[in-house]
Amino acid sequence: MTETNNPLVSIITPCFNGEKFVHRLLDSILCQTYKNIEFIFVNDGSTDNTEQMILSYKQKFTKRDIKFIYIHKKNGGQASAINEGLKIFKGKYLTWPDSDDWLTDDAIEKKVNFLEENQEYGFVISKLMMKNEKLHDVELYWREPSEDDNYFLDLIIEKNPYFAPVGNLVRSDVLREAIPSMKIYESPAGQNWQLLLPISYHSSIGYIDEVLGYILVRENSHSRQEHTKEELLRKTYIHEDCLINTLISLNPDNKSCYLNIVNIKYARKRLKLGYKFKDKELLKISYNKLRDLNSLTLKDKRYYYCGKLKTLGLG
Asked: Considering only Cβ atoms within 10 Å of each terminal Cβ, which end of the chain, N or C, has fewer?
């Protein structure tokens, strides 16, 4: 097939310490029915045997005629690793699966065919299956489309969100229009917000109602472990900072409205943390911020006053 009929698809994968699970992603790329793939693997300063694992696959990728690019960098987080790939990828289409994700054999082919046949969409997502470490099905991961679909806003408020990168395929021209610098904000977290918000603002989303990938649910992953109040509170500030900087960079119409939504969202999250951890000062600060933003709800007031009673041992 010609390049026109079989356009190049770039895959960028950031990875930190993935030696125990990245083989599934690598094998799934090698098994793709689609025949024109560029694979960019960014080792984000791994301290395990990730490098040896990846380089052991180099010859397999060469035999499969998949362009294989390996980058090793100092640890800086997933966003900084993705930026390394964004500098050099060449594909007409791009996806950025995590190193513990993997694809069905026909995932790339079906997504490319969808976008080739449906030019009105800038990107497409598919159903995914969440798997535990024994590779048993856990839960279907999906975002139900609706007539009043507003993916951009839903990502901000985390309503019916879809963040899994393995499920996405985006047109590169849409990505370059959305992020002209081809560089996302290097936050400790949120690299999927930083890509998906600009993409969804500049284009519409298509849906493939079929499982075309898998997400590994690791019991010992940081996100699934119990967190202290300090860790959870820090996470709210990191995510808020990521969203604010992404929106400022994107500069959408009604930017101030979106920024206000973000401020309200995280003030409310902190109010709930104050309630959960019986933190009187956090309750007060969060409640006052919501009041100043003219966004207090009856539920917020209940959290606040019930939380105050809890701090006194009366709740």
From this structure: N
pTM higher than the cut 0.70: yes
Per-residue DSSP letters for 99-145? TTEEE-TTHHHHHHHHHHH-TT-SEEEEEEEEE-TT--EEEEE----
Name the stretches of the chain with pLDDT < 70. 1-4, 190, 220-226, 314-315
Residue ranges of the chain assigned to CATH 3.90.550.10: 9-218
Q: What tens digit of pLDDT does each residue of 138-173 get?
A: 999 999 988 888 999 999 999 998 999 999 999 999
The H-or-E segment that residue 286 falls in is: helix 280-292
Nearest to 125 by CA among 82, 185, 168, 161: 168
Tokens of 206: 């298509």
User: Measured between alpha carbons, how far is 127 from 213 in angstroms, rounded to an integer?
Assistant: 7
Closest CA to 130 of 106, 166, 159: 166
Q: For residue 195, report the phi and psi dihedrals to the nearest 5 degrees.
A: -90, -45
User: With respect to CATH, is domain 9-218 assigned 3.40.630.30?
Assistant: no
Tell me the two tokens of residue 205: 């989303």
Q: How confident is the model at residue 4, as a pLDDT? A: 57
Give, as one character, the DSSP assignment of residue 158: T
pLDDT in tens, 251-264: 999 999 999 999 99
Place of tokens 């990521």: 242
Partners of 171 in beta bridges: 93
Block residue for tokens 């050099």: 88
204 contacts: CB under 8 Å, gap ≥ 6: 120, 121, 122
- Alpha-carbon span 277 to 288, nearest angstrom: 18
Burial (Cβ within 10 Å: 0-12, 13-18, ≥19) of residue 269: middle
Written as six digits, the tokens of 70 are 């390996």
